[in-house]
DNA sequence: AAAAAAC
């Protein structure tokens, strides 16, 4: 695979006009309030306009979508003809994404950029009725955004013809591979003309991604934009250690603290499991916080409603699994909280990438419990810096514990109800017991627990308590431990399996 | 240890 890297353009002096974009596109951009291209746009737009393949390392929040969508629209303009018959509207550009929400958002952007043109676009993804999608496809579109599974479904139903696709975008390609989409991707790509332009975007250039690129890209231009958040100085990262079982209370504490300080209430709280996600959302609601859960077991309608509610400000705390870690373009998230540290360090970067967009400042707060040492070490190794340890001022875990145990009991009752056939998810609030903890804002009494009663300090006997650099050094010097993955897998051989 | 995605 031959790879060329373009010299870094002087992005500061670029304007959208300077790319030679059509007036109809420029008009849409100025209506959207776009003024200056972001670095990824400055790099990608000219390259895509030239018809070159692209291997792009960029995350959401960098303006990546416009980086590929604008030049694609520009290149398709000669194909646009509003009065043409559906047969004259074959799919010319196909954009694939790993999650339904991301597909919807990419489509939303495309539609806005192409608003003043005659290009047609639509989006197809699972979890919703196929018929409206089929109708839209039958009417004809030049630009199609899709998740792989549902697209193949449409292909089988012969409601879409991909034989005229000239441009293919693989967005969040690493995620698609992680999710086992490779066979689907191969099936789809085999339906496309060999002569086409392919753009691949990925957060990482893992061996798997490189192999994918080697099979499907032709002499790609590599575009890399510095990870927006690993070294993003305007994101204040912090990790708080609490005891197992105090995590929910800690999140409540953090949210209330922010409210007290007059900071925005809007926040995404990431949880590793779907069950934990629903539970935390319920707990927050009980604590009087406007919260809602979003995860893969929610229906598509619920997912969209929740996202809408969050965007419109009706929901303050969006409690999410990693369905929301990547791609969700929620502007200017002031705060991201990791209720659980993510299993993979990559996911940490994606999660906190929800905040600190476009120079805005943001907080990325993580809850740490004993046993999370390895996860934190991995994260710090990846982002090449230590995450500062913070103290939960005035946090009273023992007082909170009683409440939490109580809520655990309630949850068990809800589980029993569910087992009897009721819907226990979020519906368990019918007969809520009243709790009086001496005031509307429950007091966080100083605790006798030595860990919580004083600020977090490094302690010699706890690996987790060492400063991050020491922890990393220790981890590195620990020597010949069995690698987490077989070497073959690291080299890109066998699929990983632990 | 998990999540995501077609029916």
UniProtKB/TrEMBL annotation:
Q: What region holds the DEAD-box RNA helicase Q domain?
A: 14-42
Q: Region (Disordered): which ranges?
A: 389-498
The enzyme class is: hydrolase
Concerning CDD domains, the annotation shows: DEADc (cd00268), SF2_C_DEAD (cd18787)
Report the residue ranges that make up the Helicase ATP-binding domain in this protein: 45-223
**Stretches with biased composition (Basic and acidic residues):** 398-418
Q: List keywords of the entry alphabetically.
A: ATP-binding, Helicase, Hydrolase, Nucleotide-binding
Q: Which Pfam families match?
A: DEAD (PF00270), Helicase_C (PF00271)
Bilayer-crossing regions: none
Q: Which SMART domains match?
A: DEXDc, HELICc
Tell me the InterPro entries matching this sequence: DEAD/DEAH_box_helicase_dom, DEAD/DEAH_RhlB, DEAD_box_RNA_helicase, Helicase_ATP-bd, Helicase_C-like, P-loop_NTPase, RNA-helicase_DEAD-box_CS, RNA_helicase_DEAD_Q_motif
Q: Which GO terms describe its molecular function?
A: hydrolase activity; RNA helicase activity
Q: Where is the Helicase C-terminal domain?
A: 234-403
Q: Write out the residue ranges of the motif Q motif.
A: 14-42
Q: Which domain of life is it from?
A: Bacteria
Q: Supply the EC number(s).
A: 3.6.4.13
Family the UniProt entry places it in: Belongs to the DEAD box helicase family.
Q: What is this protein called?
A: ATP-dependent RNA helicase RhlE
Gene of this entry = rhlE_2
